[in-house]
Amino acid sequence: MRIVVIGAGTLGLSTALNLAQRGQSVTVIEADHAASGSSGRSVGVVGTQHVDRFDIQMRALSVRQMLGWKERGLDFRHIGYMRLGRTTEDLELFARSIAIQAEFGLNHARVLSRSEIKRLVPHISTDGIEGALFGPQDGYVDPHLLCGLLVEMIRERGGVVKQRCRLQSADRTGAGYRLETSAGSFDCDGVVMAAGAWASKVAALFGHALRVVPERHEAVNIRLAEPLDYVMPMVMDYVPGSGGTGLNFRYERPDELITEFHRPKATEGIDPDDYDQDISEATKVELAELLLERLPGLPGAGFGRGWAGLYPTSQDGRPLVGPIGDDEPMLVAAAGAGGYGIQLAPIIGSLAADWITEGQPVSLPEAVRLKPSAARNATTASAR
Question: Are 234 and 138 in contact, with CB atoms under 8 Å apart?
Fold first, then answer.
């Protein structure tokens, strides 16, 4: 089959690679360049330390693919991922998470005491913290290098990646589609919409509504006057469904960290073609206060480069993966991964390819719940 994937971020490229590996004729079209949207502004975290069974299962499948890409040269830096817990209830969630992870072949996680947290991160304050969920094999990747590797692997299998190729209109042509772009026309049997923050705009060109809200999020480099003599893991002060500040930070190199917020919130979203891509002074102040509280002993810390990116977020906080309408099984969405696009890209790519080639999510049958629906496209946001 001739399949066009719209979007050359991690979700689109992962989908295209999965399709090419299954023998399909794949063309990726990208309005700008690979990793030019949300993927390229991500901090690149790959972690499995979650507390919901389905979330853990998806990440377990993603990590397997990511490790395969590591064998192809992906620089997957295993610095570890630590999720802080503030209550005994959090620690109970963490213990259940470890058991669930083990079911899916992930046997490295453990619960840390306050003293163990301090041994791993000597500069951290454990005030208000009961313990942590820690996965030493988790870490991060460079999103630009990841996208570059995926493009290379797609082309090795005969796929095409066309950059500076903006979708302008789309029409049904019998059982397929004709796409008009800034670089010419494409006729195809199926389409995967993986346009990130532009997902709603792309869906509208096909005559459909897809509720993906672009949420603006900010990150900043922390420069240290003295280099650390240890590798600081990714630290997340937030437990899904529970609480925390949402502050997270990770090692970039001995004299530099990266920090940001990850907090659920309802928003009407912003225009991905017109938003402020710099960090605000108000965010810097808030981050500084939280960092001083959690990392009071950092040597001469100061802000470096800051930036803003977009989390393409669905209303229920779950990705939207599957046919966008019952009458168009070959028009598939791969969108709405929020701030988890990098770590979920491998499994979302597999699932989107499943819907095209198998008509169902065979890689993870439970993922049928991710299929777009009228209820999931409702305009009332729910807690995430």
Answer: yes
Specify whether 357 is located in the same domain as 335: yes
Q: Which of 313, 330, 351 is the last residue of a domain?
A: 313
Residue 48 lies in a domain: no
Cα 183–chain centre separation: 29
Which of 294, 313, 332 is at the close of a domain?
313
Average pLDDT over residues 146-172: 98
Domain that holds residue 86: 76-139+214-313
For the stretch 309-328, pLDDT in tens is 999 999 899 999 999 988 99
**Amino acid in the structure at residue 125:** S
Q: Which residues of 283-297 are buried (b: 16+ CB within 10 A; e: fewer)?
A: beeebbebbeebbee
d(CA 202, CA 329): 17
The angle formed by the CA atoms of residues 36, 354 and 72, to the nearest 5 degrees, is 55
In-domain check, residue 293: yes
Same domain as 326, residue 354: yes
Q: Using 50, 70 and 90 to split pLDDT, how confident is the model at 381?
A: very low
Contact between residue 317 and residue 376 where contact means Cβ atoms under 8 Å apart: no
Measured CA distances, 288 to 125, 222, 293, 295 (Å): 15, 10, 9, 10
